[in-house]
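Renewal narrative, Specific Aim 1. Our central claim is that a sequence can be written position by position from structural information alone. The example that follows is taken directly from our test logs and has not been curated for this report. It begins with the structure tokens describing the chain, in the order in which they were read.
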């Protein structure tokens, strides 16, 4: 990092940004994610129209009894059979004949039949309904309870309406052990032995040295896997958001032919280095800060961490934009304002947090290796008698 500061920024593939009360302003998370539901702003949408393959129910009533058709009060009144829209876009209605319905809405079909009944029935009234809507549908697939086609004729207007009609979103990892599941005691003891033997402890190899790691439970995994919702329309992706964002007011309107896919998309931040518990932490909230993540891993390892060496590595748009530059954020916890800065810095998926070791720990690693080398050499030469604990 000292070399990076002495090198021109143009020569580096990344930018180094010191987090201060001034610079952190540009990286604050949104103040509030919730907003009014999009359903309140949706227009009435396109009317549903009949298309070949649809099945319609047509009922005809007359104003007075004694005519061709029953009155609406007649208990025997019923539909004139289900009418399948042919490939030519027509249906056959008794006493009316062939009626062109393709491209017409239900009200338009009713008016057309009533017009064709003029002079045949007294005050005819027509009721047309969809029995099987095969064209005004939305395909919902992925992590939903009942994947398949849902009909817009059921009053569906938004993406969430369609997902709820398909039984709601489900978590495919339900019942699976969390990614940070705790090990059993035997594994813990083995890890402790390997840590001690590899120089991770003090120079004497004891558990109370500079490198000794206290036992803590693993960081919480953040609950069930998060879900992403993708909406395709005419082959183009028009929406790609977390389900939580839709629930917070990011819902949009739907049209027939749309494809909705609900799939897992766990967003994690990786924490490494001199922290009490390292690992992956799920971003279960849209406004997670650096202070929140450090709290999840029980904070810095006080005896090992370099309080001036906390770094956040962020690729940003490098994957999709070759001209974009990665960023390395550095936070100095020796500064009085560091906690306020950490509570304002917003985390993003795939961020990596690294806490460097204190210089003393690095020296301790070297001394521990030298100490063991000298002892082993003395034992082999016979000048040192091994102790019981060796």
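The sequence written for that structure reads:
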């Amino acid at each position: 990092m000292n070399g990076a500061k002495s090198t021109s920024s143009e020569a580096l593939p990344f930018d180094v940004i010191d987090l201060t009360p001034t610079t952190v302003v540009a990286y604050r998370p949104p103040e509030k994610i919730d907003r009014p539901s999009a359903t309140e702003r949706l227009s009435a949408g396109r009317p549903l129209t009949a298309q070949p393959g649809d099945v319609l129910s047509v009922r005809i009533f007359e104003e007075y009894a004694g005519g061709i058709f029953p009155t609406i009060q007649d208990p025997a009144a019923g539909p004139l059979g289900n009418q399948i829209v042919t490939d030519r876009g027509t249906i056959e209605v008794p006493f009316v004949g062939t009626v062109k319905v393709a491209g017409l809405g239900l009200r338009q079909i009713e008016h057309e039949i009533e017009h064709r009944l003029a002079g045949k029935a007294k005050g005819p009234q027509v009721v047309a309904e969809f029995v099987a809507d095969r064209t005004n549908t939305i395909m919902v697939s992925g992590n939903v309870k009942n994947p398949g086609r849902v009909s817009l004729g059921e009053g569906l207007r938004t993406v969430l309406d369609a997902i709820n009609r398909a039984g709601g979103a489900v978590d495919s990892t339900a019942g699976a052990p969390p990614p940070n599941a705790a090990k059993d005691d035997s594994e813990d003891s083995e890890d402790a032995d390997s840590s001690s033997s590899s120089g991770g402890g003090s120079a004497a190899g004891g558990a109370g040295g500079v490198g000794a790691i206290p036992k803590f439970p693993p960081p919480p995994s953040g609950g069930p896997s998060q879900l992403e919702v993708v909406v395709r329309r005419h082959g183009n992706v028009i929406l790609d958001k977390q389900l939580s964002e839709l629930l917070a007011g990011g819902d949009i309107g739907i049209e027939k032919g749309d494809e909705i896919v609900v799939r897992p998309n766990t967003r994690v931040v990786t924490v490494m280095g001199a922290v009490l518990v390292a690992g992956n932490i799920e971003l279960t909230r849209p406004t997670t800060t650096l202070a929140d993540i450090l709290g999840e891993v029980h904070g810095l390892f006080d005896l090992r961490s370099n309080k001036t060496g906390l770094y956040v590595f962020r690729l940003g748009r490098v994957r999709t934009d070759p001209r974009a530059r990665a960023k390395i954020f550095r936070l100095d916890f020796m500064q009085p304002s560091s906690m306020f800065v950490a509570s304002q810095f917003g985390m993003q998926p795939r961020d990596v947090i690294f806490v460097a070791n204190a210089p003393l720990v690095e020296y301790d690693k070297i001394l521990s290796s030298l100490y063991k080398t000298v002892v082993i050499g003395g034992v082999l030469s016979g000048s040192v008698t091994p102790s019981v604990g060796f």
